[in-house]
Amino acid sequence: MNFDFLSGYNIWAAFWVTIQLTLYSAIGALIWGTILAAMRVSPVPAMRAFGTLYVNIFRNTPLTLIILAMSLVISNKLLITFANRRAPGGLDLNNFRLAIVGFIIYTASFVCESIRSGINTVPAGQAEAARAIGLKFTQVLGVVILPQALRAVIAPLASVLIALTKNTTVAAAIGVAEAGSLMRVMMENESNALFGVFAIFAFGFIVLTLPIGLILGNVAKRLSVKR
Amino acid sequence: MSAQAVLYDHPGPKAIVRNRAISVIFILVIAAALYFVISGVGGKGELAGTKWKPFASGDVWTNILLPGLWATIKAALISVVIALPIGGILAIARLSDHFVVRAVATAIVEFFRAIPVLLLMFFAYQFYIHVVGLDPKNLPLYSVITGLVLYNATVLAEIFRSGVHSLPKGQTEAGVAIGLRKGQLMTIILLPQALTAMLPAIVSQLVVILKDTALGSILVHYPELMDTKTQLTSNGAGVVATYVVIALLFIAMNFTLTELAGFLEKQLRNRGGARKGGPRVDIAVAASLPVEVDLTKP
């Protein structure tokens, strides 16, 4: 097979942007999703209502809409920017960060639901024992329940992470130069090497997503709470 | 742990006061954030009545929004109708006794599950232009459906497979005992039950398909609901108003489907309540769990 069509394109740089988008969004979504899950099981009615509302809104909205709204509503209308758009490269940096915030907003709702179902796998006796020795709600959740729940949801969270990795291609909608954008450019310019281009990007995503499932599946087995 | 109230003591008079205080503070913080957003948007004149006015006219609905909505639903429905049988076949192939069949099916499933739907759609788009030479009129719809089918058939295959695994072992054993062949066992006994047990998960997958149709507006120019935004704003609707209306339409559809999935799950759970070994499946976890079971071995 002739790989001449590769010259002039920096595939590695595009995938590096994809990896960065995934990594930052994953960290943010894990933190925000855990907070949302804590709110949904908290004794404070307003927080429970907020958590439920948040999850129902963002789980049911297309990611495409959220990402486009980040650029066209949040940045262009509200003028909330995450980088100086007039500085050289500032526009790209702003779009990159907007995309990350969009991914966090969307993915956190799935993280929240996973963790909530993880909380349900912890036997009630654990919480009852924790309360019996006088722990407060924050302690029951933070010291006893969440550590066990998080270990139970590593496998479902791995699925969320894989979905996030693939979802980062939606950032192409607001012009972030990640793998999806580059595939589009390459397919349009090198239409006689269509299958070659697709094979490369397919391979790239398989390399990114397959290890997540395998490694985290293993970790999940090793860390699972023996009952 | 089923009742979440287990996590904290039943609130006494002191705790009730404290929870109310936290509630009030929390609501104030949220209200402040909302005020910041709304005043920011309002300051740009985005909330003025004229920006919303187009949505009060029937023409905007009949000419732009409803055709967009229909295009979204059409693409999702066609995709799921094609993806369901393909998913069933892939699931049967993955449960096959023959190594080669199993390996090929596994490779197909793992391949298409790993690739972003957006890339599948755009590849299909280019493929139809350069290789098939498809009529440009059909190009966007066919690309969207191809992308959605390739991905969702593999997801549905995994849902069916975990559905078969969730069935009590006695079903397989009884089938083998009365002398059914493997094919009969699968098509008469296991798949119909797996389909019912997995109905909630399948309805949940419909939500994913419905949301993913919006990807068609990014690269392949499919005129679905999300794509109507340009037409709407050029008809005088505000950007914020346009996004809010489109989002509400999506949320309404998907929320209804999510609730339906929850309802079906409850129904199935109640039905299986009498017999302890009945299929009980957590939809959130079902599709992601790797389970290994040999069908015909004792």
Distance between the termini of chain A: 54 Å
Radius of gyration of chain B: 25 Å
Helix percentage range of chain A? over 70%
Cα shape of chain A: globular
Brief overview, please?
The complex is a heterodimer of chains A (227) and B (298). Chain A is 74% helix and 0% strand.
Question: What descriptive keywords fit this protein?
Answer:
heterodimer; A: 227 residues; mainly alpha; 9 helices; B: 298 residues; 72% helix; flat
Description:
- The complex is a heterodimer of chains A (227) and B (298).
- Chain A is mainly alpha-helical.
- In chain A, 74% of the residues lie in helices and 0% in strands.
- Chain A has nine helices and no strands.
- The longest helix of chain A has 30 residues, at 11-40.
- The mean pLDDT of chain A is 90.
- Helix content of chain B is 72%, strand content 0%.
- The radius of gyration of chain B is 25 Å and the shape is flat.
- The model of chain B is unreliable at 273-278 and 283-298 (pLDDT under 50).
- With 298 residues, chain B is mostly helical.
- Chains A and B meet through helix 2, helix 3, helix 4, helix 5 and helix 6 of A and helix 1, helix 4, helix 5, helix 9 and helix 11 of B.
